[in-house]
Prior knowledge:
The protein is α/β, with parallel strands linked by helices. It has helices at residues 2-32, 39-43, 51-56, 58-70, 82-93, 98-101, 135-140, 161-180, 191-194, 204-212, 219-250, 259-265, 271-284, 288-293, 296-309; strands at 75-79, 123-127, 146-149, 154-157, 196-197. The protein has 15 helices and five strands. Strands 2-1-3-4-5 form a five-stranded mixed beta sheet. Helix 4 (58-70) crosses helix 10, helix 4 (58-70) runs parallel beside helix 13 and helix 11 (219-250) packs across helix 13 (271-284). The longest helix is centred in the last third of the chain and has 32 residues, at 219-250.
Amino acid sequence: xxxxxxxxxxxxxxxxxxxxxxxxxxxxxxxxxxxxxxxxxxxxxxxxxxxxxxxxxxxxxxxxxxxxxxxxxxxxxxxxxxxxxxxxxxxxxxxxxxxxxxxxxxxxxxxxxxxxxxxxxxxxxxxxxxxxxxxxxxxxxxxxxxxxxxxxxxxxxxxxxxxxxxxxxxxxxxxxxxxxxxxxxxxxxxxxxxxxxxxxxxxxxxxxxxxxxxxxxxxxxxxxxxxxxxxxxxxxxxxxxxxxxxxxxxxxxxxxxxxxxxxxxxxxxxxxxxxxxxxxxxxxxxxxxxxxxxxxxxxxxxxxxxxxxx
Length: 310
């Protein structure tokens, strides 16, 4: 009876802590989310409004934005300067929908304790060294995440969608087993082991940034150009979905689709361009990523079944 009461007390304390954390996040989004900021006003807070900002940071911005789109618009920006962090947060949020911006937040300008990282927000800033990126939170995120480090000028990301889901499943299973066996399973997942550099070659974002520099420094013109770019990526994603569904309906048998030809037809021969469009397609129609690149969990289960039947 004593053990049961003790366990109940621990469960209540844990639940209370989680509820308080959720309320803090809701309050922070109410105060500092980007939902109320229109595109033109948001653009004035970004790196895209001044030509010199784009030219000086062209390669870094290209990697940060392309990785952001590849990871479903989920990014964490870390740095020591609050102004620069907020500037990058606003830049990445330009490539999110209005609804997604409602789940994105900037750091407060007031001299208060910065927000900690919270999984599943779309874009958020982390001020180091007061806060840090938790490996456990990265794994608890429903979607892959991009991490942009302004101090080191690096862009890293978690595993792609299909592999990220499989890895989360395995880790959750191990945690449940450890809990059942009453083993201690403290956080052994550092962000360094979970993240890898974004090295995919792309042309869509690089071309966008180069073309923007030729436009007048008028946020109206540049904002419209970014919105047209977002529409282009969504149109490519819709087209990819339509082609895959059409091919699957025609080839009712288990025929392997020629994805290389599909990529060439869409002008997505570069890996980064294809991953960006595929990620948007996944948002529009969940399951597209695993259908095209495979589901590691299903492949593992099939291998286990084959071994067991031998």
